[in-house]
Amino acid sequence: MLEALGIGLSYGATPALRRIDLTLAAGSRTALMGPSGSGKSSLLHCLAGILVPDRGRVMFDGQDLTGLSDRERSALRLRHMGVVFQFGDLVPELTLIENVMLPLQLLGVKRAAARASARDLLGELGVADVADSRTGAVSGGQAQRAAVARALVHEPRVVLADEPTGSLDTVNAEAVLDAMVALSTRMGVALVVVTHDNLVASHLDDLVVLRDGMLDLSAREAVG
Amino acid sequence: MIAAVALGVRLAWGSPGRRVRSLSVLAASAVGTSVLLAVWAIATSRVGSTGAFSDQEVGRLIAGVVAAVALPVVVLAATVGRLSAQLRDRQLANLRLLGLSAAQTRTVAAAEAGLVAVVGTALGAALTVALAWVRGTDLVPSPAACAAVILGLPAVTVAVAVLPQRLDLRRALDRARKSDVRRPSPWRAAPLGVGLVLCLLARRANNDFMITGSEVATVFAGLALVSLGIILVVPVFVRLLADLLARGFSGPTAMVAARRLQAQPAATTRVIAALMVGLFLLVGARSVVVAFEETPQYAAAADHIENGQRAAVTVPAGGLDAARRDVLALPGVRDTFAFPVLTGEVTLGAPGDPVERVPVAALVAGCDELRRFAPAVDGCVDGVVSSLTPRWVPRELGGTGAPDTAALWSGTADAPAAGAVEVPISEARITGTGEGSLDEPTWDIRPLWADLLVPPGTPGVESLTTRADTTLVVVAGPGRDLYQQLDALGLTATTREDIEYYDFVAGMRTVIWTLAAVVLSIGLLTFAVAAGDRAVARRRELTSLLLVGTPPTLLRRAQWLEAALPTALGCVAAIVSGLFAGSTYLQLGSDMGDPPWQQSALLLGIAVLASAAVAGVTVIGVGSRLKAEHIRAE
Ligand SMILES: Nc1ncnc2c1ncn2[C@@H]1O[C@H](COP(=O)(O)OP(=O)(O)OP(=O)(O)O)[C@@H](O)[C@H]1O
Ligand SMILES: [Mg+2]
């Protein structure tokens, strides 16, 4: 469903990714690991269509992302992808529920229906009680749950998460991750999680390890 | 101390971000300085030199004008000086942590902002003076004005830059934590409401012709409350807009714009308030000038300067041909008309019961001659003496009508120089385009004034006219030098329009429109700066919206809506209240004229379009591509 075909990326003279080939099947659950600076975030940004690789192609359901305009990639991300980053990236001026409603509303769902879906999902994630608070007024864990809800509310094909639990304590991290994995499994959403944490990786089925911008196939086999 | 100053200077130029900030402060001080000095010079030359008012009054007027411009300029300087304030405050706080004292930290901040402001102000002043010199105009600002601006503007910038902002920061934090931003107290709308009600009451009460002291007091109390209320009401107004937007529209654009508006930042609210007060005062002031423009001496002088000059000179019997030749040789003179003018007397009242003997003036001319001179007159009957004056209200309008006869003689003296001639006055009444139900011909035959039109063939009149002085009316193109040219010929105009009065009123009008342009452009510029700065601070929000896949067009639309809505509607509210205040003032007296509807409508249109355009400027960069650095930077 989502494929990287020989992608390479450099920031100026710094090579971040060199010839990465990766295939993610529908409904698969993949952990992306590797030392700091190995290119995990860069790869994730390429898969999400935020960055366009210098070489190679990113294919989504047979469509070449690298050939699309910024606007088309945005539309594709809105429709078929969900993203979660370390600090949630909720819109600070909206309430949690408004943040979760946002993708639905952008896709043309009426406000009342969007609100209902968002509230359901927030309920499942256990943060219905703070749904009407703004992001500044809730804990990091609550905000991160809302971010997970926002990534899943429109039932995308794939959720891309970059250290989604990196700013949380172990207990919270565990809970958020469990919820994310459970929900995406139920919805049949493919999941890619960048993490430094072996515990996190153990919740997922596949493991991809990056080293110096290249796939470390030995590591993959060793764990897988 | 020196180390702190040096650190401040380094900070001002240290990083690319700081350089942009410093350049903004530099540009703002330079622009503010030149605007302030230029308006000061315009006010001095256009209002100060007319001589229509005493030095003291002119001083007050200029002070008012300068204050009106200084306000938006100071707001501009202060807003730019507070750019990226949170970031800077954090950096300055870090200096404190390093061990700098509060005073030292303040010195660092003052040096940083002050140096740049001083350079910018000096640059602006030099530019204005140089430009005025090069163009050779009389609009060179006075040294005193330059000194005041060069010292004052940086002082304000520095003061604002050093202002301790800790309190503000904490409040900002509190605000962010609240799930719903605190609603501004509705009491802020009270002064405006009370002021409007007082004005309405005064308008209701003032249907009669009498103005009582209490009515005047009500109006002025109302006007004062309205102008104060305009400032206070802005947060309530913006909040109301945000709520309406949130309720009325369900789309994500409206939601994002409404939520942002609800969080109304102090900087933009302040700018909108300043803009509104400026426009309100100017539209109000424009109405006050209308009261001046409605006076006859202004209308006559304006006609003189804008449409054509007319002067009447008295030529002694026999000297007419020579005088005419001289006058026609003057540049700009188009035509001359010569009329013998007789003096006389009528008796008003019922026959046999003389109540009053009234002096009259009679123009000796036939109907053709009169029509050639004043094409708009009507009702002239050949061969009879007709009345020209509106003084004698005709019988059909309930007056006593014209007297039956007049005694006429030559010369201007009260008593007849030689025997008076008695002429019958007919019922014929000549009308013109003048005001009032009588359609006075006074305006059409200006600068002459006469009560009667006497045909040259009237018995006994011919003998009088050979001895009488002739009045020569000189008609020239638009301008203001006809009187002086005639003076040089030794011919003195019998009446003169008050051109200085015209200069004063026209000068006031120019100053008001200049101010309106300045207030609008500086106000909107400041708004753009404040909004742009806010957009930079909101990059995180934008990034996160883009991450979801929000189309950039939606973000731009939301930003545009957020900027355009309060400014455009604020301008409309300010101009409409200004007109309301102005018309309330004009209703105080009878015949003070109509408020300047058309010009205000024009200003309103310009303000709305300019707000929309400036809101468009704040959109630049909002919907730009998602950059990976911005995601990482969080
Ligand atoms: N904007 C940038 N400009 C220049 N170099 C960059 C930029 N972003 C990343 N890099 C470099 O690209 C390489 C890969 O970075 P990337 O962020 O993808 O690593 P990462 O595996 O996510 O690291 P971490 O685990 O610390 O988040 C690193 O060498 C990094 O220094
Ligand atoms: Mg990373």
TrEMBL record, chain A:
InterPro entries associated with the record: AAA+_ATPase, ABC_transporter-like_ATP-bd, ABC_transporter-like_CS, ABC_transpr_LolD-like, P-loop_NTPase
GO cellular component, one term: plasma membrane
Pfam families tied to this protein: ABC_tran
GO molecular function terms noted in the UniProt entry: ATP binding; ATP hydrolysis activity; transmembrane transporter activity
Domain of life: Bacteria
Record domain ABC transporter: where: 2-223
Keywords from the named record: ATP-binding, Nucleotide-binding
Listed name of the protein: ATP-binding cassette domain-containing protein
Record organism: Jiangella asiatica
Automatic annotation (TrEMBL), chain B:
Main location: membrane
Domain ABC3 transporter permease C-terminal, first and last residues per copy: 67-164, 514-626
Locations listed in the record: Cell membrane
GO-annotated cellular components: plasma membrane
Chain ranges passing through the membrane: 20-42, 62-81, 113-134, 140-164, 185-205, 217-246, 267-289, 511-531, 563-581, 601-622
Family matches, as InterPro entries: ABC3_permease_C, Membrane_comp_ABC_pdt
Entry membrane topology: Multi-pass membrane protein
UniProt keyword list: Cell membrane, Membrane, Transmembrane, Transmembrane helix
Record-given protein name: ABC transporter permease
Originating organism: Jiangella asiatica
